[in-house]
Design brief:
Length: 287
Amino acid sequence: MTDVETATVRANGIRIHVRAAGSGPAMMLLHGWPQTSWAWRKVMPALARHYRVVAPDLRGLGDTDKPATGYDVRTLAEDMRALASALGLENVYLVGTDWGGLVARRWALDHPGELDRLAIIDMVPHGRILESMTPDHARGAWHYFFNAVPDLPERLASLDLRFFLEAFFRPKYHDAANMDEALDAYVRAYSKPGALRGGFNYYRAMFEENRRIDAEAPERRIREPVHCVWGKSGGMGGPYDVLGMWSKEADRVTGVGLDACGHYVHEEAPERLVRELLEFGARPKSP
């Protein structure tokens, strides 16, 4: 079994905790909320047989520093660029799920041609979500609004963190047994000082800072090839046209939706995800 190393690397002014394994071309795995780099545990060993795989804890989450500011997608992307530079990683194959997918998007938009390719796991751009939101969609996205309220979410969630995380996670899994197996680790992670505030700060940046960043150059598109994988049962493939939304962002988009899989593809369908990532990585970069 491939050994996973852990380290703390200083990059972009903060200390970033990383898990790493394997050797070969560079691949970075970016997790979402409310998870940590531990979320990639089921796919890292197989991917590490082909790549140098680095899975960081994003700013404010896991064992990475939790400063009061810097939760807009541009700063988060610069964290990851600085981390890649500190580790000597170039031409990175970037994989992002949930918020990690949005960080990957911003890296590609701000620095065109710098990455090798992007794989987006069960995520669509927030701007596309907000412009197409219906009342039914809003019911499933309640946390966008609750999490963005100043101070209140931290206070309420801390009263019964396990209950809060379970209520959030359960509808997003196809099979709740997959949640039960992971829940303890995430309860531990978000019980750490500052972890809840760090996670909620992502949503506080969503409605103002991130929208301003997107408005700077709305015509800008992703140059690199993009491959999307999403769940059809509890994932983004239920309410949203995943490929259609990403086709508005990039010229070369492929993808597949998975039956009997929810939002957390890396936890519910790890073998299929590994296969998709390896097959996409083997494709020529140029059309």
